[in-house]
Amino acid sequence: MSKYLSEILIIQLIATYLVILGHSYPFITPIPGWLQSTQIFIYCFHMPLFVFISGYLLIYTSQASKNNFKGFLRKRFLKLLVPYISLSLIAIIPKFYLQQYLNDSMSADWNGVIRAFLVPRENIWGHFWFLPMIFLQGLAGLIVDKIFIKLNICKAGWMITTVILFLLYFESFNQPITPWVSISDLTKFSWFFSLGCTCAYFDLLNKIRCLRPLVGSIALFLISLIWFSTCDKWHLTAVTQGALAVLMIASMLLLGTYLSEKINFNKDSVYTETFIIFLLSWPCQIVINVTAERLLHLPYYLIMPLQFLAGIAGPIILIKIINYIENKYKIHWISFLLGK
Q1: pLDDT of 1 above 60
Q2: Residues 6 or more apart from 280 whose CB is under 8 A from it?
């Protein structure tokens, strides 16, 4: 695996673990105020980091040059929407009967079922809202990049697009448009996708190698943390939240660059399965949450590390089990359902 691709992989892995950490907080068990603040801080940037990397990869892998729209659509549908639809269908009945143990509820009428699929924030799995959004962002990004390539204005075009999408994010920050088909999330996160595309055209990851990445990462993290500590954490403005996200994205990019010098993943390593780890993390965490919080009533300082460890170790164990079953019995439908 090339060093450059290893950097991106490590950053994706960091983003995945940040999502898992963000999902490790108790649902109903009281936690100290300072701990609530850490969750808000994580939520300022963990999804923007995911979206940024998605935009970066679109340009880094030259998707607009390699693929026609039909081929790209098919690939994205199989990877993102097949898991979104299939795993939701599998979980819809168990969730309905177990909702008393969960943090949300679901109505059994057709309106509830339709909203579970067309309003991604109300999906069967809490973290699956991300999949339709990144699917639509990828399709739009491919079309826009093809246009910019044809007009020979890639760098300028993506810079202008980022500014326009930031203004849209700013205008809709306090007045979301509609949750249907990810529209509100697209207006909130698409400028990070466009920023990733812009940075890829300027070869950002390659250029920051010459810096002192660990020092820079720590410095940006401390600046972000100090700034966050001076803000009204419950009423962050669009500019503050956006700026904190950009600072922390930069910090994570530098950290990924530093770690790529220390870690060398084999291309067949289970840790390269970042997308599958993301998909399987929440089911593993919810099992531990129901057991530790709802049944055993453990304190938060035990619930959180248990959920975090379950979100990391659980998917890795499941991936190994799935690989063993599919290799032994020559079946591949499980991987298909997981978008692999």
Answers
A1: no
A2: 314, 315, 318, 319, 338
